[in-house]
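Recall that a protein's primary structure is simply its ordered list of amino acids. Everything else, from secondary elements to tertiary packing, is in principle encoded there. The following example makes that idea concrete.
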Amino acid sequence: MSILQVAVAFHFPIYYCPAYKDTRGVPSLQRDYVESLLANVREDGGIKTVPFSVCRKIASDFGIKPRDVETAALSNGICPERYRRNIGTLGISGQMKLLGSRVAVIGCGGLGGWIIELLARAGVGEIVMVDPDVFDENNLNRQLFSTEDNLGRPKAVAAASRVAAVNGAVETFPVVEFLDENNGRRILEGAAIAIDALDNNKGRKNTYAACCSLGIPFVHGAIGGMFGQVGVFYPGDIPLWDNDDVPDKGVETKTGNPPFTPAFVASLEVSEAIKFLTGSEKGLKGEFIWFDLAEMESQRIKICPA
């Protein structure tokens, strides 16, 4: 009895891709690599898993993307071992949704580096990373991808290199340019959600306008010293920066940014993005959270509807 017959006998779902159909209408290539996956399944606490090394070998042997192998595994109820610790929270279906999602991160510095790192480790399938800047010495205290060897390197390019080292199944799209009123829609096209890692309100206005035109939410985050805020703005909301009296730069021009504040805010932003991508009803909506880490205080503040 073949592995495929065993799978059918035990009611394992078999995922097929129409792109690989042979002359009889049977997707032979994917059938073969699904058999390879099933032959290497392990049991871990009632969850079927497959090792990283097996996923990569199958991708290499069959000439397919690592992401396609992981998608096939999840479609058959098998969790790639690298995501095993996600499953208790996200489930197999949630992990599949992440792997099938595209997220745009606007800014690859203090907030953006941590956001991109967390998205890649979570298993978001495609990440668009937008930043026109290069790393400078004053980035070394807080920007995850800023290293002594990376000084002068474009931030978006460094981000893509880091993601490739962390999770080769994630497809990256580095964009080394400003997102403005002319290119915003093009850059965000295809993304399910955009995440704010900017340090200026002009950029936020342009990004939110593009989000509204595409009908996608914008996860906002801002930091300054030990202060920060996080919210999710949907098309039709009135954002915090939609006021001519609001300065382009915030309190960070005086307080600076220590290393821990961007890491904290980035975690909250990624949490909101993942809740949205996986269909959770518990995400922030109609309000944002402001906090002061010095006093360990936080407030929920209502967002004005349009």
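DSSP finds eleven helices and eleven strands in the chain. The radius of gyration is 21 Å.
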